Amino acid sequence: MLPVAASTLLLGPCDVQASCGDWEVIGVFNPAVAMVADETVMLARVAERTSEQRTGWTPLPHWSSTGTAEVDWVRDGDVSHTDARVVAIKNGGNLRLTSVSHLQIFRSGVSGERTWQRSGAILPEGPWEEFGIEDPRITKIDNTYWITYVAVSRFGAATALMSSPDLATFQRHGIVFPSENKDVVLFPRRIEGDFVALHRPNPHSHFSPPQIWLARSPDLIHWGRHEFVLGGVQAWEGDRVGSGTPPILCDEGWLTLYHGSTPTNVPGTVGRYCAGALLLDRDRPQRVLARSSKPIMQPTTDFETSGFVPNVVFPTAMLDRGDELEVFYGAADTTVASSRFSKQSLLDSLEL
């Protein structure tokens, strides 16, 4: 693992009020971050659940068609716990989440400060988002900020798109990658006339290790010309891989961080999530020039090893600070944190 500046805890559940009076916030994590003039703006995922308990019953929250958070109560014997985040309904096997997420907007007036002021929220809307909206990423293309995010519903986990001129007002553009597809990040400029995205297909049938793919679009709405980019071939990425931060362009090519997780043999748990780096060709971004053979970030601090989902670092934003890269990430599905890397040291650590 590369030497980095000490990780800094930025936001946690105690910093956010629940959207309903009798609910509790269990996590503020997996943030999207961008600069707007001199402000640093963050869209953070806020996961919450009802604080009410009923003996023998499991609460399964969702967002109603009327725009309010509600709870379905299911008998404990009718569900089996996949992990802390997910249960399966025994009659039919359909999955439900144990919490429901929305996005909250935070602003920090000076990039070096870490005082975040809440300035609004983005709530789930419509049937595609009934189980919540999660894990945003922001990419500025020309004068518009584009936000990809996960829309979760009874139809699965899909990727949706929003746009904003200022990260204060937002326009939804609907589903752009259908279920099951997550971890979509956009490149900040067209390449050979096309918009380009990295995405993570999540097939039920595993013919190969987990993968990251690339797609192209004429308009950010219609995507095709899919190509394989990367497979999880290392032990630390053998269970899942997915794009983390929107790519930034440097002299060597497109640099991005991604996450990987290890398989687990313990029922009801998930494997350890770590982060690696990836360098892609600037003109043919489906071509991998170099990648991490070992994690550049792994859970070590208390807030990374303990939480709603222990042992998770999940990078979702990276700001170019000249010689340094500032990385924002979710820790243990509970908090938002940041670290800084030497850009050159990171590039030097990659292998062909």
From TrEMBL:
MF-aspect GO terms: glycosyltransferase activity
Name recorded for this polypeptide: Beta-1,4-mannooligosaccharide phosphorylase
Keywords attached to this entry: Glycosyltransferase, Transferase
Database matches in CDD domains: GH130_Lin0857-like (cd18612)
EC number assigned by the record: 2.4.1.-
Key word Glycosyltransferase present: yes
Family to which the UniProt record says this protein belongs: Belongs to the glycosyl hydrolase 130 family.
Organism: Rubripirellula reticaptiva
InterPro entries: Glyco_hydro_beta-prop_sf, Mannoside_phosphorylase
UniProt xrefs under Gene3D superfamilies: Glycosyl hydrolase domain, family 43
